[in-house]
Amino acid sequence: MHYHGSNAGNGGTVHSDEIASHGRPAFTKPDATTAGHYLAGSGGRMTQLAIGKPAPLGAHYDGQGVNFTFSPLMPSG
Question: Is the pTM of this model over 0.70?
Answer without folding.
Answer: no
